[in-house]
Amino acid sequence: MPAWSLFAVLALAALLPATCALPAAADAWDLSWIAGSEYTPSLVPGNSLWWWRYQEFAPQVDRELAMASQRLGFNFLRMFIHPMVFDGVSGTDNGTVLHETMEAFLSLADKHGFKASFCFFDDCWNHAGANLTVPCTPVQGRHNGCWMAAPQDWQRTDVNNFRPYVYNTVKRFSADPRIAFWEIYNEPQSNAFSMALRSAAYGWALDALTSGGQVPQHVPVLSCWDDNNATQVVDVHHYDTDFPALTKQVFQDPVKGALITEGGSRWYQGYPSDAGSPLTFLHWFHHVRAITPSAAAPFKFGMVTNWELMVGESNTRWHWNTKDGSPEPVIPWDAYLFPDSTPVSHTEAAVMRNWTKGVNEFLAFDNFLPDTYLFDGDQFLTLLAGSTWAADLKAGVDGSRVLVETTVWLSAGSGGGVVVRGSQGPFGLDGYFAGWRSLAPPLLTLERWSNGQATILGSFNMSTLDCGLAPDGWNMLRVVAEGTAISVYANPMFEDAVAPGGIRPRISYIDQAHTGPAIGGVHLAAVGSGADATAASTRFDYIGVLDPSVL
User: Fold this and answer.
1) Which end of the chain offers a freer environment for a tag, N or C, measured as fewer CB atoms within 10 Å?
2) What residues contact residue 370 under an 8 Å CB cut-off, 6+ apart?
3) What radius of gyration do the chain's Cα atoms show?
4) Is residue 53 classed as helix, strand or coil in its secondary structure?
5) Cα 57 to the chain's mean position, in Å?
6) 531, 528, 529: which is closest to 384 by C-alpha?
7) Which residues pair with 384 in a beta bridge?
8) Are 227 and 26 in contact (CB under 8 A)?
9) What does pTM read for this prediction?
10) What is the pLDDT of residues 198-245, one digit of tens each?
11) Please, which residues have CB within 8 angstroms of residue 108's CB and are 6 or more apart in sequence?
12) What is the pLDDT of residue 27?
């Protein structure tokens, strides 16, 4: 859609919460303010047993929550706890350590402007192997390989054994304003034990919150899946881009309302479709919000998106189905921030800040999606080799200071990238081009285009990276032009973020002679190579243009 109309949608969405008297998510519970993700510290090996070693990670938690507040503007964290931490190593701790660490965490979260929820049980991933004193070692390529189901199979003997864990924990924090809601069960299996535990724990939580019905309940109790008899708010999980179906899923019970507690993942390399990337989810959300209230969208709701906050040792940067030993992904499947505070996508981060803070920092933006909430599947810009597309820069922007980000899908015989400080010359587009001319060799180049000639100013061989250059998916490209300096980032990885100095450009260039253009437009460009060049095409999923001060 045209850039101007998307800006209008973003601006409207930013204004709606403050200016429109929209109905809450339900008569009793308003969770429409929630904007966040699941949180596990990035260097924790991806499971809820880390609470037993909380003090070891507390400085990291403090740092990462500050990053999340600044970079994304999030206000909520979905947290998982575990009955083994309640019991402790001795089996008789009775929540002493767990409750102390929850209190310490809530203090840090509150310091950075977050509320939290806590989930007691979860049937996902490893049903054996949990150990409080021997940390799990992540395996490269294994998504959530250290995530431990709660309870473990050996604990599944008597549902009533878990009453102290749930009741005492909820009772300890029953009047705590830092807690947004309690969540009983994440994605329970349909076996008799899980169903009985979900039902019983729901009752224990309500009893603890109300002191047996003697005091008012101030926060709701939720549980998967969707609408069921153990949840006061519809608990939505959705991992695809069938947004008509998601709309029905969210609004299935106008009395209870809804909260999306797991909303989407990015388009993973090698897969045929988007799994609900942050940009597609927020596009849908903004368009739904624009028609609320209506018969199609009767109430507001909040969202917890892209599974988790941090790219880290949980290994959710890989897909559910990747094999052990798989190379690093070109773009993480889940999570928003690398450990050095770099967003996976500055464009996503700016759209998030538009949602959470009501600010529009874009100098130009287009996600190439239709102007509706009723769309199914991601859409993108396709350029034939030799063609370009010009971004509609905000009035007064001369292109001298820009951060330009896009994702590029190459094909046989095609290349593509970004042109900054571009202008039309007698022989075509002039300016600085950063991108790839072909899949093979996988060479990232920075070029000066002038009078129909291309001069290479710098290059980087992508085959030296573990992630390489994806032939079957999106590749991240970020170009920063500021003064005489041009920096090119491509496919940043977790290992880059934890290295000294953090994520750095693949190519850095300074125009010391001041011979290049100082101002100009921003363009996407497809370039051809080889015998198939005339029929080749390149895809671009989005473009975001921001001021480099966001770095």
Assistant:
1) C
2) 1, 379
3) 24
4) helix
5) 22
6) 528
7) 537
8) no
9) 0.94
10) 999 999 999 999 998 889 999 999 999 999 999 999 999 999 999 999
11) 58, 61, 62, 65
12) 57
Question: For residues 429 and 422, what is the distance between their CA atoms, to the nearest angstrom?
Answer: 6
Residues in CB range of 107: below 8 A, 6 or more apart: none
The Cα 492–Cα 466 span in angstroms is 10
CA–CA separation, 175 and 69 (whole Å): 25
Q: What pairs with residue 527 in β-bridges?
A: 415
- Mean pLDDT value across the chain: 93
With CA atoms as reference, report the closest residue to 25 among 372, 304, 303. 303
Query: Which burial class, exposed, middle or buried, applies to 2 when counting CB atoms under 10 A from its CB (0-12, 13-18, 19+)?
Result: exposed
Q: How far is the C-alpha of 36 from the C-alpha of 32, rounded, in Å? A: 12
Q: Which of 113, 134, 130 is nearest to 122 (CA)?
A: 130
Instruction: Supply 82's token pair.
Output: 């575990």
pLDDT over threshold 80, residue 9:
no
Contact by Cβ (8 Å): 206, 141: no
Tally the C-alpha atoms within 13 A of residue 442's C-alpha that lie toward its C-beta: 17
Strands 537-546 and 115-122: unpaired
Query: Which residues are paired to 158 by β-bridges?
Result: none
Give the tens place of pLDDT for each residue, 426-476. 999 999 999 999 999 999 999 999 999 999 999 999 999 999 999 999 999
The amino acid at 283: H
Decide: residue 193, CB within 10 A, 0-12 exposed, 13-18 middle, 19+ buried: middle
Phi–psi pair at 8, nearest 5 degrees? -65, -40
CB of 315 closer than 8 Å to CB of 325: no
Pick from 359, 351, 306: which is nearest to 332 by CA?
306
CA distance 145 to 124: 11
Going edge to edge, which strands form the sheet with 388-390? 388-390, 521-528, 414-425, 428-436, 443-450, 453-461
Give burial (CB, 10 Å; 0-12/13-18/19+) of 323.
exposed
Rounded Cα gap, residues 145 and 318, in angstroms: 10
* Nearest residue to 304 (alpha-carbon basis) of 125, 119, 120: 119
Express each pLDDT in 530-539 by its tens digit. 555 556 899 9
SS3 470: coil
Instruction: Specify the residue for token string 């395996």.
Output: 139
CA neighbor of 43 nearest in space, from 22, 24, 30, 59: 59
For position 513, what pLDDT does the model report? 86
| Sequence-distant (≥ 6) Cβ neighbours of residue 13 within 8 angstroms | 285, 286, 289, 290, 354, 355
HSE value, Cβ hemisphere, 13 Å, CA-based, for 229: 6
Q: Each residue of 162-177: pLDDT tens digit?
A: 999 999 999 999 999 9
Whole-angstrom CA distances from 530 to 171, 205, 409, 470 are 69, 65, 17, 19
Strand partners, 192: none
